[in-house]
Design brief:
There is one protein chain. The chain is mainly α. It folds into two domains: 252 residues, no CATH class; 194 residues, no CATH class. It contains 16 helices and no strands. It is globular.
Length: 455
Amino acid sequence: MYDPEPTTRSTKPSKRPPGGGGFAHDLVGVATSRIAVKAAQFLSGLLVARLLGPEGRGLIAALSVPAQIAVNISEMGIRQSTAFHLGRGLYPAERLVPTLLSLAVMASAAAMLLSFGWFELAGVAADDWGLRLLAVAAIPFSLVASYASGVFLGRQRIAAFRRASWRPALINLLLVALLGWGFRLGVKGVLVASVAGSAAGAAYALWLLHRDTPLRLGFDRGLAAALQSKGVSYAAAMVVLLLNYRIMILLLTRLGSLREVGLYAQAIVIAELIWEVPSVLGSLVLSRGVNAQDERAFSAKLLALTRFSFLASLLIAGGLAIVAKYLFPLLYGARFADSAEICLLLLPGIAAFIVFKLLNTDLAGRGKPWAAMVVMIPVLVLNVALGLWLIPRSGAAGAAIASSLGYVVATVGYVVLYARVTGIRMREIVLPQSGDWVLARRAMDAILPRRLRGK
C-alpha cells in the first residue's frame, strides 16, 4: 500500500532505546529499506505488465486503487497518532495495543464496504466477485501492519519498522513470478500475491509486537477518542493528497477503458520515480536538523534540500523525457509504447510537486497538516473538472495533462502559503542561497563513514 505523508516530527530531543543505533544510522537503514521496497515493487510491476498487458494492468489498478484509498480513509491517521502518543509517553503500549487491534477490525470493515460500493458504482469486475473479494482481502492486513508501525515509530524501534517494511514487497514479487508468470493465473494470481505479501507483513509486525506486549483485543473508548482526535487532521490531509495522486485512475475507470487505465497506471510508475529524490535524500541530508527545536533553522535546512531536490528532479525528468519512447517498450513490451507520451505529459507536474512534498513535510511537522488541505482541496476540484473535460476528448493523455497542471498549480499555491505561514520571504524559498552548499556538505559529513570523508 501507498505510504502517504506527512509524518509526525518530534519537537523534543529523542531518547533512544537501549542498544539503539545512532539517528543517522537509522536513517540510512530506512532509506536502504525504502530502496529495496521500491525495487521489488518495480520488478513486480514489470512482471505484471509483461504478463497482463494494458487491459489486465488496468483491471489491477481499477481494483487496487479504490481499496488503497478506502484504507487511508478508514485508517483515520491512527498510525501517526499512535506514534505521537507513545513518543510523548502519554499512554503505554500495553494499553494502546488492544484498542489498536480492535480499531483495525472496525476500520477494515469500513474500508471493505467503501471498496465494494465503488466497484458497484464504477462497474469494476461486475461479473467476477472473486476478483473483488481478492482486491479487498489485503485490507485488514494492511491496516494491522500500519497500526503496528505506529507503535514501532513511537517507541523509537526504527530497526523493527525497517525490517517489517520490505518483506511484503519481496514476498509479493516472488509470488507474482510464481503464480502470475509460472502458473499463468493472470489477474487472480497477481491479486493472490498481493494478499499473501500483505498477510506476511502483518504477521511479522504482530510477532514483533508480541515480543514486547501481549496481543489481545480490547476497547478503551477514551483512548480511541484521543487517538482519533489527534489523527483526524493528519488523516484528512493524507486522504486529500492520495485522492489528488490517484483521482485520474478513478475517472479513467468511469470514463475511459481498462486499456487506458493500464497505460496511465504504468506511466505514473516511471514518472513518480522522481519522487524518490526527496523521499531518500531528504532523510539523509536532514539527519541533524529533523529534531531541531529551532524551527527557523530546520526550515533553512529543508529549503536548501528543496532547491537541491528540485534541480535533481529537473535533471531526472529531462533524462526520462529523452529515453521514454525507448524505455517503455523495452521494459514492458510494445503494448505499452503509448505510455511514453503519457509519462512525458506527467513529468512537468511531477517534477514541480517535489517542492510541495518537501515544504509540506516542514508544516506538517510543526503540527499544521491543514496547510496541505488549504491548497489541495481546491486543486482536487480542479483535477476533477479538468479530468471530466479532457478524458472524454483525449483519454489517458488528457488525464495526464489534467494531473500535471494540478501538480503545478498546487506547488505554486503551497509556496505562497508556506511563505505566509512561516514568514520566510518567497525569494528565500525559491532562489539559491549562499549557504546551501556549506549546509549540504555538513549534513553529508554527518552521515558518510569517516573513512569516506577522509578521501
